[in-house]
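ugh ok fine here u go
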Amino acid sequence: MNQLASRRNRRIGALTYIPQHVPGSPRYLRQKFKNAVAMSNKLGHPDLFITFTASAKWKELRVSIT
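structure:
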């Protein structure tokens, strides 16, 4: 294994970072959190947190998109 690593100019156990643009990665989530905190600091704390669920198969949604 060490020979294979040295042939490929790699170290065994070397750190590999997942880019922050990969959804779900720790760096991605950290950046999203920092952005949310920055927005909250600039715009003030939100009064409401609203979520909704939709289906791409809903007729009303398809009509409004096209």
